Amino acid sequence: MPEDVISHSSGDSEEKKVVSSRSLESLKDRATKDRNHAVRREALLTLAKNYRDSEDIFDFIKDIAISDSHYSVRKTALKELTSSWKERPETLSLVRERAIEDANYEVRRAAVRELAENWKNMPEIIELLRDWAENSKDKFVRSTALQELSGCWGKNCCSLDFITDRVVEEKDGFVRAIAVHSIAKHWYEEPKVLQLVMDKAVNDEHYSVRSVALQALAGKWSSKENILPFIKERAVKDAHYSVRGVAIQELANGWHDVPEILEFIRERCVRDEDNMVRGTAVSLLASLWPEEPGAFELIMEKAVSDEHYSVRKNSMEELVKGWHERPDTLRLVRDRLLNDEDNFVRITAVQELAKIWHTDPGTLPLIKEIALKDKDEFVRDAAVREIIDGWQDKDIKSKFMKRFT
């Protein structure tokens, strides 16, 4: 807040009024005329904090909530109106309007959230959100309305038939995913809900719905004997890598004590066709089964032989994180620095050597060699950066600093 907004104990009262007036006008100018939206937003916040009793500032912020050119300023204005002037009827009316008329989806979503969280005790608000969740043409309004119905009212938000219709009839995949999450969270004891969620896990056309359905099955129905084999099947057969990734995460986290799951995760490290899934499997193996015989060796193999650089990089990072005290890990990182074909892997190797094996006598000479001779300029630059940041030798700094000047 500008210094001249703060009242002082000395001086003529009329002079202080003039200073305060000037400060107010200066803040209003900044809130509307500054080219930087962050400056406008901060000025708005200062006005809302220091002039809560001003009718003029209330109207001023209402106007900003509609007319500012940047969505984040309009969004902040809405939040300040609901925080400081919630009881004003005009505030509720404005927030409802912005939920359907603002040009930016983030502002529309924020308006829906403000309605639910600030006027949840008004019966007409829950009715309004139910209507929007079903009938709004804006998918962002539908999705946020569903989220807020579930979050603010729980099972009392709507009937089972209503939420079932949203799961089945909603056209947008991300909105259907929210509906699946809601029905599993609040109506999991209903017999038909399990079958509906299992059907969505297999047959929904959108990957996000299938993923959320699998998470719900693992979270709410893990004790049922058919759920484990069902999720295992989806971890292999689903066509989308992200769904398979979610499936193996749920298997590892929910059934890591089941012997077959360890072997299943090992297999996914090797056999899944997608690098993201193989990388996820490597991380799960490293975090949940680090003491199991063969885990270290398999991850070592993936760090060298996987066809995708991201899996090799991820495997090397997991080895450093969990097994940096083993001599084989240091040897592997050095090898990857010298021999991996991908520059991202070699850059990571440089960084890990400098961080974990900084005091090893072989580290600095090797990184100096890379800084001078590596074929890739980005790897050379990474090596130079580590030398500059990690070693305080003046001769080294003077020799290599010029790369960054």
TrEMBL record:
Pfam families: HEAT_2 (PF13646). SUPFAM superfamilies: ARM repeat (SSF48371). Signal peptide: none annotated. GO terms for molecular function: oxidoreductase activity. Residues 1-31 are annotated as: Disordered. This is HEAT repeat domain-containing protein.
